[in-house]
Amino acid sequence: MTKPNERKLTIARAMAEAVAQEMRIDPTVFVMGEDIGALGGVYGNTRGLLDEFGTERVRDTPISETAFIGAAVGAAQDGMRPVVELMFVDFFGVCFDAIYNLMAKNIYFSGGSFRVPMVLMTSTGGGYSDAGQHSQCVYGTFAHLPGMKVVAPSNAYDAKGLMTAALRDDSPVVYMYHKGLQGMGWLGTEPGATVHVPEESYALEIGKAKIARAGSDVTIVSLGIGVHHALKAAARLAEQGVSAEVVDLVSLVPLDRETIRASVAKTGRLIVVDEDYMSYGVSGEIIASVTEHDISVLKAAPKRVAFPDVPIPFARVMEQFCLPDPDKIVAAWEQMTAA
Amino acid sequence: MSPTRDEQHWMYRMMVTSRRFEEAIAKIYFEGKTPVFNMAKGPIPGEMHLSDGQEPVAVGVCAHLEPHDVVTATHRPHHQAIAKGVDLDRMAAEIFGKATGLSGGRGGHMHIFDADVNFACSGIIAQGMGPAVGAALSRKMQGKPGVAVAFVGEGAVNQGGWHEAMNLAAVWQLPFVCVIEDNAWGISVSKRASTAVAHNHVRAAAYGIPGVRVEGNDPYAIHAAAGEAIARARAGEGPSLLEVETFRLAGHFMGDAEGYRPEGEKDALFARDPIPAMRARMLDEGSATEAELAGIEAAAAARVDAAIAFARESADPAPEDALTRVFAA
Ligand SMILES: Cc1ncc(C[n+]2csc(CCOP(=O)(O)OP(=O)(O)O)c2C)c(N)n1
């Protein structure tokens, strides 16, 4: 329900609005990627930009990710502020050198004399049977490698503020948006992601987590679409008299360990929800951030609801078996508290 | 050289089978996805890339291939799979995500794998190239017969991996053929907007190998050009590059409104549909009678109906089977 002075936008529109607003005030901002021009992006996040800014600043590229992401690094080092799109994060395989050896390292290699002010936006996530080369999150892969900030909005308000912040940042930012939150009808969007977005430009601080729901019995930490699963699980737990706090990470790099630790110190219990593969990833990092700091706050062993360590299957029943969802979060709580 | 009468009949049968198959898939794809289109719903969820219009490339090339020859395909693989002899029942079941599918439902339509006829796919652009070149290398090293063919779209030729694989195939003189299906569009981006040369067959010069372009989406001309390239590969004379002008009669994927196409482009393409054209030519040249063609068409339709029925009636996989087959047994 939209209230009278509410301005509900999808994440896709919020992203495009932030980019357009920066393009209006900063002539160095430009956009490159596959199908981001006339089509407006496969996920709608560049819609309207070509009409307003033209082909000089909104550039459809060949299917040449190594070239155009590498080119973005060079342009960024030379005074531009490129926004490049990697259509699906799964495609990082063909261009990762430009990302993690160039984009992520050139500031450091140059002793800080180079700046790399660029945004790499990329879609993540499954749940719609697109199989194992078009459904991954690989949050942990990107967050693991030093030198790039990593953000992952769960709603349109954060999406706009993070995009503005990313565009103004002098360091590279990987902006990971979940397909299931984009507001593209054909993906069956989560309605909770479409929220009020102020028209005027604003920036969020990168590296700050948010309390999406306050509670006292258990902390559920997640990001992107997992935040919505966590909120649904929290609502169900509330019916059983359990008060769950939901932490939306918002940023993976820098990671807001303070907020996570403070929440777990209050609740004494931790469940991490991550659509990325379980092992060697975000879920383990969150748990380690708590336990290495002060294990005595925990009343129970932490739990993870994450994608098992297998490629993402196509068949609906198999994919749904693997994906985190509210049921699995409630089940994790039940296991955690079973005598 | 023109295809023989038998080859023509086979080519026509494969083209019609492919088209009937795509028509059946297209219809079923929308089940459960209306009135609001949601890709996740219905008996065939996920993306769907149809190959209507591109059948001549598949049959013109695969007419020269044996089951032991290797083919790698792309996100748009059905026509090539059918022409290569991939089991239609199990392919249909895979597209439905059923337990009886080629991969037990793990792969879906972009990941059609059939070891029996050496067919594999990748949904990542140009990434069929390396594995095809590697198969060609393996045949050469083992002294085993067989050639490898990588089918790619014209958009793939701007991908770094494409060039690396071409060079490798050429420098090692491998029994390999790259077939570019030039349908002029990479999703919404036209070949003209993305490609520095008018046609990609000229890029063969960069690798010192023959490069040929076939215009007109003509199965006979494709058959002739592919025959030469594959014969060269079989004779140990090294790789070739073949670019074929073709077109897609469907959107990039199902649900694509194709707003990027110029007015009227689509109508002109439908007027050039290669299947009625081949039918008319065979009648015209006397290589088939009306009754023979009707027989081929009926048989193709029956084959597709049977495959679709098999897929529909097959059981879903057990959900926990998702955790199996990660490593070789
Ligand atoms: C490395 C990589 N980049 C981008 C994509 C997304 N994508 C899928 S199909 C496609 C267009 C491919 O065009 P082309 O190779 O000409 O084949 P066609 O779709 O026309 O058959 C793109 C960009 C991808 N799958 N892999």
Automatic annotation (TrEMBL), chain A:
Q: What are the UniProt keywords, alphabetically?
A: Oxidoreductase, Thiamine pyrophosphate
Needed cofactors, names only, are:
thiamine diphosphate
- Which species? Paralimibaculum aggregatum
Report the protein name in the record.
Answer: Alpha-ketoacid dehydrogenase subunit beta
Q: Does the keyword Oxidoreductase apply?
A: yes
Stored Gene3D superfamilies: 3.40.50.920, 3.40.50.970
Residues in coiled coil: none
Q: Where's the Transketolase-like pyrimidine-binding domain?
A: 9-184
Q: Which InterPro entries is this protein grouped with?
A: THDP-binding, Transketo_C/PFOR_II, Transketolase-like_Pyr-bd, Transketolase_C
From TrEMBL, chain B:
Q: Which Pfam families match?
A: E1_dh
- Domain of life (superkingdom): Bacteria
Record keywords, A-Z: Oxidoreductase, Pyruvate, Thiamine pyrophosphate
**Which reaction is the catalytic activity of this chain?**
N(6)-[(R)-lipoyl]-L-lysyl-[protein] + pyruvate + H(+) = N(6)-[(R)-S(8)-acetyldihydrolipoyl]-L-lysyl-[protein] + CO2
Where in the numbering of this chain does the Dehydrogenase E1 component domain appear?
41-319
- Write down the required cofactor(s): thiamine diphosphate
**Function comment:** The pyruvate dehydrogenase complex catalyzes the overall conversion of pyruvate to acetyl-CoA and CO(2). It contains multiple copies of three enzymatic components: pyruvate dehydrogenase (E1), dihydrolipoamide acetyltransferase (E2) and lipoamide dehydrogenase (E3).
Q: Which SUPFAM superfamilies match?
A: Thiamin diphosphate-binding fold (THDP-binding) (SSF52518)
What name appears for this protein in its UniProt entry? Pyruvate dehydrogenase (Acetyl-transferring) E1 component subunit alpha
